Amino acid sequence: MTCRELTSFIADYLAGELQADTRVAFERHLSRCPNCVQYVADYRRAVDLGQRVYAHDEEPVTDVPDDLVAAILAARGGKFAPD
Amino acid sequence: MEEVANEAALVVALKNGEEWAFETVVRVYGGRLLAVARRYVRCDEDASDVLQSAYLSAFRAMAHFEGSAQLSTWLHRIVVNTALMKLRTRRRKPEESIDDLLPSFQEDGHHVEQFSDWAAPADVIMERRETRQTVRSCIDRLPDGYRTVLLLRDIEERSTQEVADLMRLTTTAVKVRLHRARQALSTLLRQELAPEDQGRNVRQQAGIKGT
Q: Which of B92, B62, B160, B69 is nearest to A17 (CA)?
């Protein structure tokens, strides 16, 4: 397996979806290619960070501006008020 | 998700069309929902439009809201669907390429770049508000079609099939986009967060323009 091939299998490898023989070849390549080890580590870190920065407590949240609240309520009243 | 003291009572009031309930549901849940809309559409004006349309859809569908679902979860899904619709209507230009952010290979299949360990574990990056913001802004820089798949698959944890249905793509296309989006994000993070010498080194070797 070349670096190029290994790269194309990373997502399936991390998802545990590689066929056994491909997984063995993947891991054999990693065992002798520090550059791919680093590439896979960077990839995993990117996925991990993406998930964590959008976890509930991490994303900054601001209140809905008053004019937007008013616009939403007005749109509802205008179109859907029972009168 | 924000909690309200008595969500069941709020739902009943919404179903009965009580005015206070509409304002409450906008103020209590709206801030977080606006942030969710912004992840997808990126600009504040479009996010406001998405929030407004989503609430109007929710109010219209209120009669069908099942008590078994959490109100916040139900609203979240409506916002995501509305944001995806917004992205579809505004997509006029051909999609930006992310090829520059993908790895390049020599003829024999070896990586062109040497990836150095830039030695910042995720925990260290997560410690600082600034670096957390950098990660979010790197995700923001991914072209719509890639960012959306990354958000739906990795952040919302929707299935490949569900994302394929939502985005009108094949499951293979979803997998390819997710993989490319993660690779591009990885490159952007290395550019932005690796120590100066290592980041520059990687950029030069990859032939990637600085930001």
A: B160
